[in-house]
Each structure stands twice: as structure tokens, then as C-alpha cells.
Specification:
Shape: globular
Strand content: 5-15%
Order of helices and strands: HHHHHHHEEEHEEHH
CATH architecture of one domain: Roll
Radius of gyration: 18 Å
Distance between the termini: 28 Å
């Protein structure tokens, strides 16, 4: 499976805003967006010019793709799935992205970033409705429950997480049992609850051309 292996801070600088790709580090003075203004690259400032409408659409699409740590092909697949659903395609896309298993693990506070959440899922630490699931793109539905494997509860990471989980803020469409670090999907998220930092309508315009 293809994945981006370069420095993720360059992605934030390329977009020009924080995408929270490194979790808590993004709130510290070490954040590259705060330390270095402007896009990456030796000649980035010299080639700066007015961005076309098509360029703005591409930037918005890339912002969403970078934020959810997805490559182009699976992201496009999610877009086509959103197109087939009833309702507004841009909002459907936002909800589908939030329903991914790795994103739900991140939203529950069980990981500092989506990339870390994906690693937790891929390594088989998570049970979905009591069944070991290592597919990060698996779409969750209302009533689904997330728990840890018994073997994983003995890890140092699980013990550390138990000590810091109280400080985590959980969105209203999810519920977390902080004693057992078990989560549940109470309802599907609404666009208002998601508070996405990208414009779904602009992404629709990009793929519609």
C-alpha cells in the first residue's frame, strides 16, 4: 500500500496552515509552521505568484487529503462514494472521512495524530465490535464499539494513555469509557460537529472539471 513517507511538516507549510499532523508537537514552539513562514523549497518565495481558481481548488483538495493522511487514489474513491449518496456531496465526503476507523481512534483521544492512530489499527491493537480489525479505512456506523485487545492492554503505551486520557476532549457523536479506554459511536457526525478545515464544495468543483 502506497503512503507518504516524507516529512509531514512540509505538507503543513505547503498548505500554509497547521493540519495537526504531529499531534501535541503542533502546539509547541517546535511547530515548523510557526518557525518558518512560507512554503518549503529553496526558491519558494521567488516563484510565488497569484494562484488560479483551479490552483485554489487543488489546494483545498490537498488540504483535506493531507489532514486525513490519505493518498490520491483512496481519497478519490471516498469522493465517488460520497457522490453516490443522497444529499450534498461535499458534506457527505466530510462525514465519510470522519467515519474511518483510524480517524475515530484519533477522535477518541487514543492517539495524538491520525498517522499514530493508523499505526495502532494496522498493528492489530484494536477490536471493532469484539473482532480484531486492522483495516484503517473501515467505515464505522452508529452503535459500533471500539476496544483494545487484552494483550495490548499490557503495553507501555496503553498504561501511558490511561494516565493522560482525562485531558482529552471527545466530540459529542462519540463516547469514551476512560476507565477501560473503550469507545462507542453514538451517532454519525454532522458537518457542524466535524468542523472541517476544508471546503467540501471546492473539492467537488475540483473533481467535477
Amino acid at each position: 500500500m502506497a503512503r507518504y513517507t516524507g516529512p509531514v511538516c512540509r505538507l503543513c507549510r505547503r498548505i500554509g496552515e497547521k493540519l495537526m499532523l504531529k499531534g501535541d508537537r503542533c502546539f509547541t514552539p517546535k511547530c515548523s509552521v510557526d518557525r518558518r513562514s512560507g512554503p518549503p523549497g529553496e526558491h519558494a518565495r521567488a516563484r510565488r505568484r497569484r494562484i488560479s481558481d483551479r490552483g485554489l481548488q487543488l489546494k483545498e483538495k490537498q488540504k483535506a487529503r493531507y489532514a486525513y493522511q490519505m493518498m490520491e487514489r483512496p481519497f478519490r474513491r471516498f469522493f465517488h462514494l460520497a457522490e453516490k449518496q443522497a444529499g450534498i456531496t461535499g458534506e457527505n465526503l466530510q462525514v465519510l472521512l470522519e467515519r474511518r476507523l483510524d480517524n475515530v481512534v484519533y477522535r477518541l483521544g487514543l492517539a495524538d495524530s491520525r498517522s499514530q492512530a493508523r499505526q495502532i489499527v494496522l498493528h492489530g491493537h484494536i477490536l471493532l465490535n469484539g473482532i480484531k480489525t486492522d483495516i484503517a479505512s473501515c467505515l464505522l456506523k452508529e452503535g459500533d464499539k471500539i476496544t483494545w485487545r487484552e494483550e495490548s492492554k499490557k503495553s507501555e503505551y496503553f498504561k501511558m494513555l490511561s494516565n493522560v486520557i482525562e485531558s482529552k476532549i471527545i466530540p459529542g457523536w462519540l463516547r469514551l469509557d476512560k476507565n477501560n479506554l473503550a469507545g462507542e459511536v453514538l451517532s454519525l457526525p454532522t458537518p457542524e460537529e466535524i468542523g472541517a478545515n476544508f471546503d467540501g464544495k471546492t473539492i467537488v468543483e475540483y473533481y467535477s472539471r
